[in-house]
Design brief:
The complex is a heterodimer of chains A (113) and B (882).
Chain A lengths: L10 H12 L4 H11 L8 H13 L3 E7 L5 E7 L1 H23 L9
Chain B lengths: L1 H14 L1 H25 L4 H12 L2 H11 L2 H20 L1 H30 L10 E8 L4 E3 L3 H10 L3 E16 L4 E8 L3 H5 L5 E2 L14 E4 L1 H8 L9 E4 L2 E8 L13 E4 L16 E6 L5 H18 L1 H4 L2 E7 L1 H5 L2 H43 L4 H37 L1 H4 L8 H4 L2 H19 L1 H4 L6 H5 L9 H36 L10 E7 L8 H16 L4 E7 L10 E4 L12 E8 L3 H5 L3 E4 L13 E5 H7 L9 E5 L4 E10 L14 E5 L7 E8 L7 H11 L6 E5 H44 L1 H9 L4 H30 L15 H27 L3 H6 L2
Parallel strand pairs in B: 4-9, 6-8, 15-20, 17-19
Antiparallel strand pairs in B: 1-2, 1-10, 1-11, 3-4, 3-7, 3-10, 5-8, 6-9, 7-8, 12-21, 12-22, 13-21, 14-15, 16-19, 17-20, 18-19
Classes of the chains: A alpha+beta (113), B alpha+beta (882).
């Protein structure tokens, strides 16, 4: 397996939103889902995941609710808010544009500039 | 929408703090357990799995803190935390905190209190129209350098011939006895010319002041009441206007009440009545009776007016050499009437207390800087652990703020206490000024706020210095042993400058208070010429209506004294027209028939009217001849006693007994025989020179005011009730005033110097303490800083003396520099004290030397204590720091 990649700034927020857009997840679940989506190619710091979750929650991009977990304990589940859902398509598009640009940068040759 | 939801989220979070915390805990615990679970499935032991899970997660607490940060919980949280921390710091360094708080409290409190008094007394606007243009006009005896009231003829010249005044008004004092309605009471009155109130521009609280026509004979039976008198006698009854009251048996209509801040010429004036122009004195240039105020024409300066009146006086001196030679004119701003000699004292105190505030701020700065040094390591460690600079800055700011709040809070209390105590210390001097009765009226809030702001700024700025210092969390900083601190060149430099300044200011204040102490001791060593202890006094005025002549006043005095003499505890009792130290005065020109008048100048002697036992009661010694006795009755040959000074002046080479002298007893000069010579008396107080005095017997001479002196074997104050009864058993309508001991008069007469001395001593003491504390802490700091080095030196065989020299050397230099600056300042500034001094010059060598010795001793003491610690450094322990 290749060495996992470090995250570009802002990527974590993006990944979290994608993760919780599919179904509501616990925080640990978000981590697993991101690793799954990225096919374990990204190095996700476990600690910083939580501040990111709280930040998105505070900004009302995602929301959290308490629910019974599988072993009958209350647990916090995160999901995308309505506003977050509405913004998702435009953000995906924006993301793709940035990804395109970034993908093109390393291959740039002097003649193209 | 987003702002709102964020705010809502924040509020909810704040409200459900504990829930958020437990949720967060549960979430994180589950995370780690779940991760560990996965690892166990991968084949690890449970214990190892948990360990790996925790490592993989990273700092749990840090993650939590960042979560809280995201929710802006931490803002409030960390504020509370910082406050808790500073309270802990304060508890831990209670000595340090106490020192800072005391310094701040004294600086702010004393400063506000003194300035409040100064403002009320000297700066507060007078309740007049154009007060800056109002002046009092005095005639000045150039030879004796003494101000006197104006004669009627001279006043008339000024009024008709000047071009510098809008108007002039005249007045004189008049004591009345109020006989109805109600109990009889003696009343301090003043008679104003009809234009007096309008010239001042003083408006009444109720009713009106005098009309122009009320300044004429026959229409003058109207009276204006002072606020105090209206409140005390008429219970603030607004219907008093139009009522009739009886003054000396005459009927007067109350036409007005003045507001509480009006009191001319003094706050103790009770009533004002109109003074018709005394036509019978129109040509009189001998009796100085008028107290004159004038209003400068707009655009005319005091100096211009002074010059113009000066030339008028010179003209009059040519025209009336008999009376007006040697008489000049003096103009004074009207405020001087009320403040008198308390003005320089208040300014001196204000400046001293300002110095003290500067020192307090410097000291607080000094102490906080010293602590900043010890905190650098802490700052470095915290930076290394990931604290943000903003967070650190906030914490130090809060520490500074906590100190500032404590210090200034104590300062407010001190100021509150001060404005209540200070006016009492200067009571006798402030008696003339209409002043607020309650302390809240004294307190100068803007100044209090300003002083509080200054000190708060000081503690904030210096308190936040450790955060400004930006120590880098370098290995160097962190490696320093826990007890050592890092030397900061800039901080040390500031501290050195502060020390020099403190020593200089302390020395200045020490010299000032030293001069006042010497003055006080000089005065105490003098004798008044009579004995003040065990002496009770009282004062009364006999209304001319009921006591029109000497047989009436004489028999009243005789009966009263006879009744007092038989009271248990009374040794002797006498009466005098002008009680010494009370400020009462009477003068008469005297001439010796047949003696060539070489100077062309009349001798004016203090004129005393006394009962025979007066000298015995006062213990004034008889030098020659005899005292008065029963032989001096109405109609017996006129006799007089003179004091030694007058006897030496008139008959330097012959025996004064049996000589004759001309004294105007009433209007006509009376040929009087000298029968005795008595000791001199410092009539106006310890700082005054004895005047020339002539005594006449009370049973031969009419006088309407009297003071009694009663020598007792008991505590004089305990006889007060019995004395009052004795007077009232002779005349039940006769009120008496100023029933107090002669010691109280004596205390009042030196109160200004005494209070100034005590306050300046206090300020100087505080200043010296602050300075010595500053030196002490600087040297302690140096010693701690250099413990290791000193240890090495001792290990290498340095002697104690060398160690001391190296530790104290620089501070000693700083102290000497401070003393030099202080000395120069003292030589230049103490001149402002000169009006308070007596018998010492401002450059008094003894005082300067003494002050310097004290300063030197204190600095040496403050430096020695920590320096000795340096010599006791155990090299073994010191080197173990490595």
């Amino acid at each position: 397996m290749d060495k996992p990649l470090d995250l570009l700034p802002g990527t974590l927020d993006r990944l979290i939103r994608t993760a919780v857009s599919l179904e509501s997840l616990r925080a640990y679940g978000v981590l697993l889902r991101i690793q799954q989506i990225s096919k374990n190619r990204l190095e996700i710091q476990q600690g910083p995941l939580y501040p990111a979750l709280y930040r998105l929650d505070h900004r009302a991009r995602i929301t959290s609710e308490c629910d019974e977990s599988e072993n009958n304990r209350t647990a916090k589940y995160y999901r995308l808010t309505a506003a977050g859902k509405r913004r998702l398509p435009t953000e995906v598009e924006k993301w793709n544009r940035i990804a395109d640009v970034i993908a093109g940068i390393p291959g740039t040759t002097p003649e193209e500039v | 929408m987003t702002l709102w939801s964020r705010l809502r989220s924040w509020v909810q979070t704040m409200l459900r703090r504990s829930r958020m915390e437990s949720e967060m805990d549960a979430e994180l615990r589950f995370h780690i357990e779940a991760f560990a679970e996965d690892l166990v499935r991968g084949g690890l032991s449970r214990q190892e799995a948990m360990r790996r899970a925790r490592i993989a997660f990273g700092g749990i607490e840090r993650a939590k803190e960042e979560c809280r940060n995201e929710r802006r919980v931490s803002l409030v949280d960390s504020l509370i935390e910082d406050m808790r921390f500073s309270v802990r710091q304060i508890r831990r360094n209670s000595g340090f905190t106490l020192a800072v708080v005391i310094a701040l409290a004294l600086g702010t409190g004393a400063n506000t209190a003194v300035f409040s008094i100064l403002h009320t007394v000297l700066l507060r606007p007078l309740p007049y129209r154009d007060p800056d243009r109002l002046v009092t006009v005095w005639q000045e005896n150039v030879q004796r350098q003494q101000l006197d009231k104006a004669t009627v003829a001279d006043f008339n010249d000024w009024k008709t011939r000047n071009r510098v005044f809008d108007d002039l008004a005249f007045s004189w004092d008049a004591a009345y006895t109020l006989t109805g309605p109600g109990d009889s009471q003696s009343v301090m009155g003043y008679q104003f010319s009809a234009n007096f109130f309008s010239l001042l521009g003083a408006r009444p609280l109720l009713g009106r002041t005098f009309l122009p026509e009320e300044g004429t004979q026959g229409r003058d039976h109207v009276v204006v009441l002072s606020y105090q008198f209206w409140r005390n006698r008429f219970a603030s009854d607004e219907d008093v206007i139009g009522r009739t009251i009886q003054l000396d048996g005459g009927h007067y209509i109350v036409i007005g009440v003045m507001p509480s801040d009006f009191g001319h010429p003094s706050a103790s004036t009770d009533i004002w009545t109109p003074l018709p122009f005394p036509v019978e004195l129109l040509e009189n240039r001998g009796l100085h009776v008028f107290q004159v105020i004038a209003k400068l024409r707009s655009g005319v300066s005091l100096a211009q007016a002074q010059q113009e009146l000066e030339s008028l006086a010179q003209d009059n001196a040519r025209r009336h050499p008999q009376t007006n030679q040697h008489w000049g004119i003096q103009l004074k701003p009207i405020r001087d009437t009320y403040t008198g000699n308390v003005r320089p004292a208040l300014w001196v105190l204000q400046v001293s207390v300002l110095f003290m505030l500067i020192m307090a701020c410097a000291n607080v700065g000094n102490m906080l800087l010293a602590r900043a040094g010890t905190q650098e390591r802490e700052v470095a460690i915290r930076l290394a652990l990931g604290a943000s600079r903003g967070r650190l800055f906030r914490q130090f700011l809060i520490q500074g703020l906590t100190l500032a709040v404590m210090g200034t809070g104590a300062g407010v209390l001190l100021a509150w206490w001060g404005v209540q105590v200070l006016p009492l210390m200067f009571k006798a001097q402030l008696a003339n000024l209409p002043l607020p009765a309650r302390a809240s009226g004294w307190m100068n809030w803007p100044v209090l706020l300003l002083t509080l702001a200054i000190t708060a700024m000081t503690s904030l700025i210096f308190g936040a210095i450790p955060a400004f210092h930006n120590p880098s969390p370098s290995s160097e900083t962190l490696n320093i042993s826990s007890r050592a601190t890092i030397e900061r060149k800039s901080a040390l430099r500031i501290r050195r400058v502060l020390i020099v300044g403190q020593v200089a200011l302390s020395l200045l204040l020490l010299v000032g208070s030293g001069l006042l102490i010497r003055t006080f001791l000089r005065l105490q060593a003098r004798s008044l010429g009579f004995e003040t202890d065990h002496l009770l006094t009282c004062v009364f005025s006999l209304p001319p209506k009921r006591y029109p002549n000497v047989s009436k006043t004489g028999s009243f005095l005789e009966q009263v004294l006879a009744r007092i003499r038989v009271l248990p505890g009374v040794e002797s009792a006498g009466g005098i027209n002008t009680l010494p130290l009370s400020g009462m005065d009477a003068r008469r020109p005297i001439t010796v028939p047949g003696m060539p008048d070489d100077s062309g100048q009349q001798n004016v002697a203090q004129f005393r009217v006394v009962t025979p036992d007066y000298f015995r009661a006062m213990r004034i010694p008889l030098r020659e001849g005899r005292f008065f006795d029963d032989r001096e009755r109405v109609g017996s040959p006129p006799v007089a006693i003179v004091n030694q000074k007058l006897a030496r002046l008139l008959w330097p080479h012959s025996n004064p007994i049996g000589q004759h002298i001309l004294v105007p007893d009433t209007a006509i000069p009376l040929l009087t025989e000298i029968i005795g010579v008595v000791g001199d008396v410092r009539h106006a107080g310890l700082a005054s020179e004895p005047p020339i005095e002539i005594y006449r017997p009370a049973y031969q001479t009419y006088w309407p005011f009297f003071g009694l002196v009663i020598r007792t074997s008991l505590d004089p104050e305990r006889l007060a009730g019995a004395i009052r009864q004795a007077v009232q058993s002779v005349d039940k309508d006769q009120p008496i005033n100023s029933l107090r001991s002669m010691d109280a008069w004596a205390t009042d007469s030196i109160a200004l110097r005494r209070s100034s001395m005590l306050l300046l001593m206090l300020f100087a003491g505080v200043a010296v303490l602050l300075a010595s504390f500053g030196i002490y802490s600087l040297i302690s700091y140096t010693v701690i800083l250099r413990t290791h080095e000193i240890g090495v030196r001792i290990a290498l065989g340095a002697r104690h003396r060398d160690i001391l020299k190296s530790v104290v050397g620089q501070t000693a230099f700083l102290a000497l520099m401070g003393m030099a600056i202080g000395l120069i300042a003292a030589l230049n500034l103490t001149q402002f004290l000169s009006s308070l001094l007596f018998g010492v010059t401002t450059t008094d060598l003894k005082t300067l030397l003494l002050a310097m010795t004290v300063m030197m001793a204190v600095t040496a003491g403050a430096a020695y204590m920590p320096a000795r610690r340096a010599t006791r450094v155990d090299p073994v322990i010191a080197l173990r720091y490595e």
